[in-house]
Amino acid sequence: MSFSYYNDEALETIARKVISKYDPSLLYKPSPIPVEGIMEKVYGLNLEFQYIRKNGRILGETIFEDAEIPIYEYGNGGGYKLILVKAGTVIIDASLLHERSSNGRLRFTCAHELAHWVIDRKYFMQLGETANLSYDSTNTDFAEKFIDYDIMHHKTECDNIIVEKFVRSSNTSDAIERQANRMASRILMPKCTLKPAFYQVRDNTSQAVSYLAALYGVSKHAMQIRLEEMGLLA
Hints:
Helices cover 43% and strands 19% of the residues. It has 234 residues and is α+β, with helices and mostly antiparallel strands. Strands 1-5-2-6 form a four-stranded mixed β-sheet. Strands 3-4 form a two-stranded antiparallel ribbon. The chain has a two-stranded antiparallel sheet with strand order 7-8. The longest helix has 17 residues, at 103-119. The radius of gyration is 19 Å and the shape is globular.
């Protein structure tokens, strides 16, 4: 099954609807979009914070059906264990809670996973996979740890745990991840408020990026990319 591709205009429209379901006034005044509130109150998603991988490579993971998934425990000598997770759970890597400078990354990770839930849910449910935001597309550390990694329905023994159903993390294509990133940026930085906000401070481009990033609660890098996509920066 192929995923659904949305052009820029469609993503802008979907993002506005996502925000409007929570609070339409957010589409009229520049401010940080309460992405966690949208996830929980509008879509009924359950946010959990766990260490997803030992190396911190995966920042977020969305669960589309009840399953047992691996997480990393630093206590008791460290190691991976399986936990039962209900459908509609978004796991955010706990490392993002401990870095003051990671607030932008935390919010963007949440928005990225929300984007998967809104526009990619049918795709991932038919695959029988979770969606995750990672730095690369490899998963060799877990492929080695969990035998029969690619099998969706099986019974195996792992660290004395009998796994009835193990859903693998997806190695999603770059196209799917890029689209989720584009959707996330439109949720966190809606065009309808960002464009007029930019024109108010555009005389000093370098300070404008920093100012707008702080205003919307995103990283300067994310704001730079969003403004370039909108054609507001050369």
